[in-house]
From TrEMBL:
Native source species: Sphingomonas zeae
GO molecular function term, any single one: phosphatase activity
Keyword GTP-binding recorded: no
Cofactor(s) needed for function: Mg(2+)
Positions contributing to Mg(2+) binding: 68, 84, 86-87, 214
Protein name as it appears in the record: Histidinol phosphate phosphatase
Key words, A-Z: Hydrolase, Magnesium, Metal-binding
GO BP annotation list: L-histidine biosynthetic process
InterPro entries listed in its UniProt record: Inositol_monoP_metal-BS, Inositol_monoP_superfamily, Inositol_monophosphatase-like
Amino acid sequence: MSVHADDIRLALQLADAAGAAIRPYFRREMGLEIKEDRSPVTLADREAEAAMRRILEAERSGDGIHGEEYGVKDGVTGRQWVLDPIDGTRSFTVGRPIFGTLIALVDNGWPVLGIIDQPIARERWLGVAGRPTLFNGQPTRTRTCRDLDGATIATTSPHLFDDEDVPHFMALVAAVSGNSPRQGPVYGGDCYNYGLLASGHIDIVCESGLKLYDFAALVPVVEGAGGRMCDWNGDPLTADSAGHVLAIGDPARTDEVLEALRNVPHGHDHGHDH
């Protein structure tokens, strides 16, 4: 599952191409449509993914591709490039520069390379298995979190949790906030939150309902910065994961986070297995 210098070069080339496709549409007419699952998509999403796929078809025709907009192309190498051209399309459509392009290389189901690229602020996190995560070319690290009480927790939106997941998320919020609204979660951010966690600005990100293209790139970024990524059971994230995602900046807090997620008042837990 080794990552070669040429893989990194190619991933950076993909990020450059996606950013060049996205920037002309930001805060301008973007051809917004609503997909069947009610999620938004724009010309920028489609052009950015098409640009990345053209490069991959030319350079790595044997590798698989799994993209949000244009689906799955099977490969023959056991490697798959997983693409989300705009993670955070809602933020993009309202002019908030906290969306990102996600690019991952998944080797036999395991994410081994990931990029979070914010093309407006020109901020880029690069994670590679076994190497320190780089932010704009410089090593970056998660921060120490000595106590769950007072930790900073982020999620994109409370409305994105299924009904049975809400009590678990709120139990975790209570554990970090002491039930104080002033210590409540940071909302909004999509993949950007995971970059901020990797750079030591956020302690925990908790989400559910994520697809492979939403989380594959995040794993090498967070873990290469010293953090931990897992599902709500504490298991590692792979292509087979169900989409319940935790990022924990200080791995020493992992057991406490998992315990807090399970600590749901009697009568609120529907027996949902994560």
